[in-house]
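name: query_chain
kind: protein
chains: 1
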Amino acid sequence: MSLDGFIAGPDGDMTWMAPFLAPDPAIDALSAQTGALLVGRRTFGGGDPYEGTEGEGEAFGGGWSGPQFVLTHDPPREAPPDVTFVSDLRAGVDAALAAAGDKLVNVLGADVARQCLEAGLLDEVFVGIAPVLLGDGVRLFDHPGGTTVRLERIDAALSAPATNLRFRVLR
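structure:
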């Protein structure tokens, strides 16, 4: 996420992340603990921070592989390997949890994360803050009219290239 709260730039652009994609122990640990991904359609089909690299088109730039569940109301006719398209949030969460086994479900996408929060289905928030200001784009959390979601910090780690924060969602 940029310091001003955007996880993607205008039109879902994620190429701004490229200079910050150095090895990061916190991201590596999260990847190793992840058993499945629950991904928003905009994130799944959006910009790729690994564009032009060996990891282009791969989750975590190829640093992770496994089942992905993409939440969408307009699935394509054919799904890539290990990708399942689901139209219902709860069904997607349940399928991702079952596939993850004793590992984590990593939620990717601002809108899906917001829906999970509103449904009481999100336990933690992990965010790596990059030292950049974007000024516009897709906010980490956007709730028109406002709402308060209380969080408790679990961990904070300063590592190049980002500051990584992990929070528990308080209910």
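note: The longest helix spans residues 89-100.
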